[in-house]
Amino acid sequence: MLLPDACAWAEQQEANILSQGVKLTDIQISDAAKAGVNNPGRIRLLKVPSVPAPDDPVLAQAAAAINLITPNTWGMALRYGIFLRTDVWGHRDVLVHECVHTAQYERLGGFLPFLQAYLPECVTTAYPGCPMEQEAIRKAAEICLTT
Asked: How many CB atoms lie within 10 A of CB 102?
C-alpha cells in the first residue's frame, strides 16, 4: 500500500540530489562502472549530515521499522542520486556499495521495480541480510580489495 508513496518520495529525493549534488570524479566513475552502472556519468552525490527520512510519518515509520533509514545509515542510492553522510564522504567502499544499488535500479528498470524487489527482501530477511543488500556488500568488498 505504501509503494506509490515510497516511489514518489524516492523520485523527489533523486531530483533534489541531481540538482544540488556533485558529479563523480574520473576515479569514482571507473568504480561505478566496475560496480555495474551503465551510466555512471548520470550519478550525483549529495553530502548530508544524515540520510533524510520521508516527511510522511507513515513512510518514515516503515523505513525505520525495517532499518532502512536510521541515524546509522551511511548512504542511500535513489537511482542516480546518492546521499552520503558527511562523516563517510570520501569513503570509497560506501560509495561503491551505493553504486551497486544504482546498477540494480538500472537492471530492474527504475524506482517501482527496484522497490518492489528490495523492500519485500528487507521485510522478509532482516536488513542487511537481504539478497540485494548482500550483493552490494560483496561487490563493494571485491572492488575495493582488488583495485
From this structure: 26
79 and 15 Cβ atoms separated by less than 8 Å: no
Non-local CB neighbours of 66 within 8 Å, separated by 6+ positions: 119, 122, 123, 127
Quickly list H helices, the chain.
Answer: 3-20, 26-34, 57-65, 92-108, 111-124, 131-146
Query: Reduced to 3 states, what is the DSSP secondary structure of residue 14?
Result: helix
Radius of gyration of the chain (CA): 14
The tens digit of pLDDT for each residue in 56-98 reads 999 999 888 888 898 899 999 999 999 999 999 999 999 999 9
Rounded to 10 deg, the angle between the 92-108 and 26-34 helix axes is 50
User: Which residue has cell 538500472?
Assistant: 106
